[in-house]
Fold:
Amino acid sequence: MGIKKIGLVTAGGDCPGLNAAIRAVVKTAMSTYNAQVIGFLDGLRGVVINSFVDMGNDRVSNIIARGGTILGSSNRDNPFAFYYDDNQKDPLDVSDVAVRHYELNHLDALVCIGGDGTLTMASQLAKKGLNIVGIPKTIDNDVQGTDQTIGFDSAVVTATEAIDKIRTTAESHHRGMVIELMGRTAGWPALFAGIASGSDVILLPEIPFDMAKICEHVLDRRKSGKRFTIICVAEGARPKNQEVITIADRDKRTGMVRLGGIGNYIAKELEEKTGVVSRTTVLGHLQRGGSPTPYDRILATRSGVRAMQLVMEGVFGVTVCLKGSSIEHFSLEKVANNPRIVPLDSEYLTIAKSIGSFLGD
Ligand code: F6P
Structure:
């Protein structure tokens, strides 16, 4: 296809492994295909305002182990509903401006490294004629079509290590310990870290919980001699017949509420209803930070190399994906507006129950 110049962008909430993916795209483009790469800054905002840097070996050298993204990111900038600043009253559709910058820079393709939201926007940009290949990343692991996203493994390791540490103090003080993890609509991080840490109760957005049953479970454990309980809860989990708990109003730029507070709600209820002294730890953005695990570095490298192969093969409007143990591709259109939640017949739910974790329902 005569691909000579490629744009690259990282958008949405950051996660460990983004730099490894950037490195793989740039190195493969330059050394295997003799193509040039420019990196847009701060997510899709960079495409709208045409802010970018030329990528070369010097920029991607020594970054495989670094968390975050050297290009910057944003989860508040959508070219189809864009705010130039926070004073702007209404959003503007500036997607044509993004298309113009793609053309002005003589790009032959744009590689978008993003989660569910970014890949939805990428799918819309692809419909406007841009040659797009996506790479799925997010600690939430909720991108349709892929078995695992870049960043998920690192976040699960961080959360599991944190819960392991909380377990020792829980045991000393015979307490109820609630650990709140990220995960808005999908409970993958809480489910995996919950299983890996042997959490006694695991609560997910997919399964509204019954507080009375959780209290009963904690008291039953006490009767059987287990004087502490570890409760691993996703921020998007909610009690039956109640809304999710939020800490800030809807952000006009993202249309999303800021979740948070479910951990404190559970600890308070537990202590009031059972008398078991309870504490909460909110892991928050800790889960998005730090060095990627070797697994994520390898997944990111495989994804970046495959993305460049797809670009060179002229396969666009797709995202790279992991299917079993192989790297394949999947339609961007099917990813759009379609987060991958934990199915109620998931094997992971079955194994959690089999080993005695209570899922709150
Ligand atoms: O990246 C996804 C996510 O981690 C969600 O689980 C969480 O609700 C959100 O990001 C938090 O985003 P922010 O960085 O804007 O607080």
